[in-house]
Structure formats: structure tokens, C-alpha cells
Design a protein that fits this description.
Blueprint lengths: L3 H15 L8 E2 L1 H8 L3 H13 L3 E4 L2 E4 L2 E2 H22 L5 H11 L8 H17 L4 H13 L1 H8 L4 H17 L3 H25 L1 H6 L4 E2 L1
Parallel strand pairs: 4-5
Antiparallel strand pairs: 1-3, 2-3
Helix pairs in contact: 1-3, 2-3, 4-6, 4-7, 4-10, 5-6, 5-9, 6-7, 6-9, 9-10
């Protein structure tokens, strides 16, 4: 069982990476992180193992680095998301009930305008996982959870952009309206477009600002 201190260290480091307080390419050592978090190297080691499993850091010799932002990997991951999520949506149509849709909608609307970016990101992630769960296919859900973890930092950067959170939430609610109206093709098209727009906004922003990102220490691989 993971100790409370290890869980806290993991959460603090993960938030620092997602929020780009720890820069892509930055070297991480157990000693320095232990001082930063005021905790033991053993605790830090457990947190680093979880972050490595999520693809947020990479082992290099005796230390770790924050994983660079890889634009090609981001594009591939978003394409994989679209295949998974649209497929799951179509699988769900024959059996989805109004009660299950209402449950997904309620969970998608739990936070208000003053909610933090992190909480909004958690809500958006949960929405996509809940939606895929309507298919009843556990393998699809697990695969989606994995790819969303690997896209977490990219999606965080996108969410910090102007109006991204509001657009995303409106898209989610409209998608549920289409499912409730039994418009399968329209819902599938809308979901695919929603994922593609998200990918395009993020990748274009990173490409446009590649020089600036590099000067600030962010390693952006193409």
C-alpha cells in the first residue's frame, strides 16, 4: 500500500510537471527533490516510479529528466484517442439509457466558474472516461485512461489558453444532447471534431512558439 507521504510527494511533483514549474528536459535527482518536498529519498523514489510509468519523466543514468514535449507523439496519441472514443461511443448507442446519460451530465457539471484549472482538467478527463464507459468495454476504458495520462501535460497547456475550458465544456454538453437525441452519426462526428480541434490548437500553439519555448528551457521534440 502506498503511504500518504508518498502519495503527497507524487501529487506535488505531478502538479509541478503538468503546470510546467518543472521544465521539460530538467534534471531531477532524489536528493534535490527530497529537499524541495521536505521528505525522504525513499518517498521521492516511489513518486518518481509512478511519474515514470505515466511517461512524465524518463530515467537517464542515475537521475531522471522531465520528459520533453514530443509533438509527433502528441498527434499520434490524439489520433488514438479519436479511434478509441468514437468506437466506444458507437458501441454504447444500442444500450445507453437516459439515466446513464443524466449521470454523465451531472458529473460533468459539478464544478463552477471559480474552479481551478486542475479541477477542470480532472472533470474533462472524467467526462471522456465516463462516456467511454457507457460502451461497457473495460479494455477500451483502460486504454483511454492510459492515453489520457500520457497527454495530461499537453492537455494542461491547452487548457491554460484563452477560452479553452469553456469551449471544451460546451462541446461536452452538446455531445450529450446528440446522444440523447439518438443521433449516432452526428454524435460520432462531433466527438471526432472535438478531439481534433483540441489537438490542432495545442500542436499549432507549440509549433508557433517553438523558439520561445526553447529559450525558456522547454525541450519540444518534432
Amino acid at each position: 500500500m502506498t503511504s500518504p507521504s508518498a502519495t503527497l510527494a507524487y501529487q506535488q511533483l505531478r502538479e509541478s510537471i503538468l503546470g510546467v514549474d518543472l521544465l521539460p528536459g530538467e534534471v531531477l535527482t532524489e536528493a534535490r527533490l527530497g529537499e524541495r518536498l521536505q521528505t525522504s529519498r525513499t518517498t521521492v523514489r516511489g513518486a518518481l516510479a509512478r511519474l515514470e510509468n505515466e511517461g512524465l519523466i524518463r530515467k537517464t543514468g542515475r537521475s531522471f529528466i522531465v520528459a520533453p514535449i514530443d509533438l509527433r507523439e502528441i498527434e499520434e496519441a490524439f489520433a488514438f484517442r479519436s479511434v478509441l472514443e468514437v468506437g466506444a461511443l458507437r458501441l454504447a448507442f444500442p444500450t445507453v439509457t437516459p439515466e446513464r446519460l443524466a449521470w454523465v451530465r451531472d458529473r460533468a457539471s459539478e464544478f463552477g466558474d471559480d474552479t481551478s484549472i486542475g479541477d477542470h482538467m480532472d472533470r474533462a478527463t472524467r467526462f471522456h472516461v465516463d462516456l467511454a464507459g457507457l460502451s461497457g468495454n473495460r479494455l477500451i476504458v483502460r486504454s483511454l485512461e492510459d492515453v489520457l495520462l500520457r497527454l495530461a501535460r499537453a492537455r494542461w497547456l491547452e487548457a491554460r489558453g484563452d477560452g479553452g475550458l469553456a469551449r471544451s465544456h460546451a462541446d461536452h454538453l452538446h455531445l450529450l444532447d446528440l446522444v440523447a437525441a439518438r443521433q449516432e452519426d452526428a454524435a460520432a462526428t462531433h466527438l471526432h471534431a472535438h478531439i481534433q480541434r483540441s489537438c490542432s490548437r495545442l500542436v499549432q500553439a507549440l509549433r508557433d512558439d517553438r523558439r520561445g519555448l526553447g529559450l525558456r528551457g522547454l525541450a519540444v521534440h518534432t
